[in-house]
Amino acid sequence: MKIHTDVTTLSRLYPLFKEAGIEGVLTGNFSKIEGFGYQEIFGALLQTGNIPEVCKVITRCDTCLPPYSSEEKPWEDCSREESMGLIISFFLDIIGLHNESQDLLNQLKSLKQTSL
What we know:
The protein has helices at 7-20, 24-27, 38-48, 51-59, 80-94, 98-114; strands at 63-64, 73-74. It is mainly alpha-helical. The protein is globular. Mean pLDDT is 81; it is low at 112-116.
């Protein structure tokens, strides 16, 4: 499974992020998300109920697959750590931190393998 960061993905994410009030992440207008950290971003997406849809758009897949999960399952059934790990990796990737994004995904994979 791959994280997609192309214009099509960003366009599909924009309404979901706008509903959550965090569209500044996609547009580069960081004044809209000033003071936001992991908890605030997660809370904003959680409040809208769009976390599974965001994960589907980012991966172009309806299921959470390893390394994001220990087993294939619908994004709706994934844990906070599985879904937010993916979303944070996406954020790192869109701001140009490709190595850090991949490192996070590798760490998630290691965590899932040791918890089996």
